[in-house]
Amino acid sequence: LGTERLTIYGPAFSLSHQFGNNIIEFDLGVDVISSASTDNIDDVVSSVSRLDARTYTSLGYSRVMDEGRLTLTTGLSGSIESDYTSLGIDLGATRTDPSKTATYSAQAQVFLDDLRWGRLQDGFLQAPLELIYPAELRFQEWYDKYLRYSFNLNLGTTQFIDQRNSFGIFLVLSYQQGLLATPFHRVYFNDGSLAVEHLPSRRFKSALTGQWNTFVGGNIIFRNSLNAFVDNFGILAAALENQTVFKLDPRWSLHPSVRFYLQSAADYFAPFGEHDPKQEYYTSDYDLSDFNAFTGGLGLTHRPVGRKNGALSAVTWQYFYYGRSNQLQAHTLSMVFDFSVR
Predict the structure, then answer these.
(1) Do β-strands 84-96 and 236-247 pair in parallel, antiparallel, or remain unpaired?
(2) 198 DSSP 8-state letter
(3) Residue 178: CB partners within 8 Å, gap ≥ 6?
(4) Which of 85, 126, 271, 324 could form a disulfide linkage to 328, CB 3.0–4.6 angstroms apart?
(5) Strand 194-196 relative to strand 202-217, pairing
(6) Does residue 104 contact residue 94 with C-beta atoms inside 8 Å?
(7) 155: Cβ–Cβ under 8 A, 6 or more apart, which residues?
(8) What is the dihedral of CA 164, 340, 90, 152, to 10 degrees?
(9) pTM, entire model
(10) pLDDT of amino acid 98
(11) Whole-number pLDDT of residue 12
(12) Rounded distance, CA 238 to CA 208, Å?
């Protein structure tokens, strides 16, 4: 009930440096969020729209071996905001066959999330204080845990069929354990009572994606993907996506894209006031509801010709519209500058 209107400003910086057979990649970004829907979640009462911020960073290292046919990678990542802290580590390998027509990849990821609020309150990097519950439900501790562990295994292979076509298939297996519910989400029951959202403490997820890229001539490239998703919460989902690249000339390219998404509801979802208080698990989070979504976007990339060392190598402007069948709508504008130093 009420508004979910929000505005996000998301500046980000990315750096990649190669020296010999070694590659270092660094990312740093921040999402500044102004939202009436997040106001009053914590113990601070403020104006209609309160600012929150999520800061994230990652550092990765890659080693190229076997004359470029094998690449080993490792990385660390972190993210922090007022009611969320995450640390991650990943290990991976990519192998290209001697004919250079097929590539195989594997990556393992582990994330540790702390869902307590207070780490950034009245200063920087304080000890976390507590889980935040809705104001009228703070008479008890609804959860005795505040950590969430996530384990991901990403497997993939790409194959060049001919000079114009390539095909890829990718499998993601995920397991999560810990506090998977959002502590400040209310659930209203059909008898008028209410409680904090309650979900199982274990979740298994898997996703399978097929990709087909084809060069159709006339400087046109189609990038197509089909994705299927399933989890033990009862969600089934599928997505179909296309991005078409039109190379207008050596400097300019246009890339429109569309994506269609269908999802069934989780077993534990029901709208406002429809849950039975005798249920073991319950949520009214519409991200777990039955819906379909459409994303449409248009991008324009400019690559200067005859640039000097250290000059701008590319600039991209993009607009995306996102719409869901449950009335959620979003508009995204972005601009990316790429610089290259040799």
Answers:
(1) unpaired
(2) B
(3) 113, 145, 147, 148, 149, 201
(4) 324
(5) unpaired
(6) yes
(7) 105, 106, 170, 171, 172, 173
(8) -40
(9) 0.90
(10) 87
(11) 97
(12) 10
| DSSP label of 49 | S
Reading the block at residue 26, the tokens are 């660094």
Q: What tokens were used for 316?
A: 């991209």
How far is residue 82's CA from residue 286's CA, in Å, rounded to a whole number?
23
Q: Using an 8 Å Cβ cutoff, are 30 and 79 in contact? A: no
DSSP 43: S
Identify the pLDDT of residue 48: 46
Q: Which residue positions in the chain have pLDDT lower than 50? A: 47-49
User: Tokens 């104001």 — which residue?
Assistant: 135
Residue 121 burial (10 A CB sphere; 0-12, 13-18, 19+): middle
239, 209 Cβ separation under 8 angstroms: no
pLDDT at residue 149 in the model: 98
CA distance 275 to 269: 8
Give dist(CA 79, CA 29) in Å, integer.
9
Phi, psi of 102 (to 5 degrees): -135, 140
Q: How far apart are CA 8 and CA 16, in angstroms?
A: 26
220-231 and 202-217 beta bridge pairing: antiparallel
178: region left, alpha or beta (phi > 0 left; psi from -120 to 50 alpha): left
Q: Which residue in the block uniquely carries the two structure tokens 């429809």?
A: 274
**What distance in Å separates the CA atoms of residue 121 and residue 49, rounded to the nearest whole number?**
17
CA distance 101 to 230: 31
CB 203 within 8 A of CB 233: yes
Among residues 121, 141, 139, 122, the alpha carbon closest in space to that of 131 is found at 141
Cβ neighbours of 304 (radius 10 Å): 12
Region of residue 180 (left: phi > 0; alpha: psi -120 to 50; beta: else): alpha
Indicate the burial class of 297 (C-beta count within 10 angstroms; 0-12, 13-18, 19 or more): middle
Q: How far apart are the first and last CA of the chain?
A: 54
75 torsion bin: left (phi>0), alpha (psi -120 to 50), beta (else):
beta
